Structure formats: structure tokens, C-alpha cells
Amino acid sequence: MVKAALYVISGPSGVGKGTVCRELLAQSDALTLSISATTRAPRAGEVDGVNYHFLSKEDFLQRVENGDFLEWAEVYGNFYGTLRSAVQDELDKGRNVLLEIDTAGARQVKKLMPEAVLIFLAPPSPQELLRRLKERNTDSPEEIERRQRCLQDELAQKVYYDQVLVNDRVADTVEQICRIVSQNQL
Fold first, then answer.
1. Could you read off the pLDDT of 72-125 as tens digits, one per residue?
2. Which backbone phi and psi does 165 adopt, to 5 degrees?
3. 59 burial level (CB within 10 Å; 0-12, 13-18, 19+)
4. Which residues make beta-bridge pairs with 71?
5. What percent of the residues of the chain are helix, what percent strand, and what percent coil, each to the nearest 5?
6. For the chain, where are the alpha helices, taking DSSP H only?
7. Nearest C-alpha neighbor of 98 from the set 38, 32, 160, 4
8. Cα dihedral sign, 61-87-169-156
9. Assessment of whether the complete model's pTM goes beyond 0.90
10. What is the DSSP letter of 148?
């Protein structure tokens, strides 16, 4: 029997993590996306257990204390995290799990699950990343500048990853990740 694995995708903001993960899930039935938990209120159309596991702040913090999370962080006053039980349930069913998180979360996961496969997505160049951030038109100029200042620190995190891929073309990156998953199943 093939053992299922946890695959963690992370990298700097604007590198295309979300796009790559969406394509991976659309093209491969070998992966299932882990659903994160959050304390933020559901947005219009979001469903508990589908988009996120929506928890109260008290419940979330109790679960942190109980060691229920593989990783967690506070972001702009809300908590986000990956429930260990949600990942383990999928792994126990023989399903590979895909997790899209930041570099700090990836290091937390690796500490608790050393067998997890960490994949770092890097931009072709800092200039290309800046172009993508501006082009996606979702961040203010101040936010883009802040993200650009953090880039070198984020890129330095790649030493903690099992694989480092340059996300120049989404199709090529998806193909490389599919190959990693296939090779890991042997």
C-alpha cells in the first residue's frame, strides 16, 4: 500500500502559490486541499468546513493550548491555522494532502511532521515578482512596498525546504510538483 504524504507549498507573496495550487487540484486527483481554521467571520458565500473551519477565538486558542494545530498564526487580529486532525484524517484515508501556507507555518509543520514534503516557490526574479504584485491589482502601493521589503527574508527561507522551484510558467511548475508527488509514491 502506498503511504499518503503531506505537501506544503509556500513562498513569497505574489509568487503564484494560489494559482499553482488551484491548477494542481484541477489536474491531479492525487491531491486534496487541507482546509484551514480561522477566527475571522465568514465572507459572503463562504461555507464552514468547505472554505474554512470557522472557530471562535476562545475555541481556537483552546485548541492551540491542546496542541491541535500543525501550524498557526495571528494575522491582522485574526487567527489562522491547520488542524492536525483534518490533515491526519485525509492521510489515514490514503489521500495526499496539499497545504498552501507561509514560510513560518511551513517550518512549524516540518517540526511536527518531519516527513512532510516542503516545496518553496521562488520568483524568476525580484523584478518579475514586483510586476506580478502590481498586475494582480489587489494591494495598495504601500502594501506592495512592504511585501517587496520582506522579499529577501522570505527568499532566505528556501534553505528549509525539500524542493525549490522557480515559478516562471504555472504549467511547468505544476508538472514539476506532479512529478515530485509521483516519485514520492514509489
1. 999 878 999 999 999 999 999 999 999 999 899 999 999 999 999 999 999 999
2. -120, 135
3. middle
4. 82
5. 45, 25, 30
6. 17-27, 57-65, 84-92, 103-112, 126-136, 141-156, 170-184
7. 32
8. positive
9. no
10. H
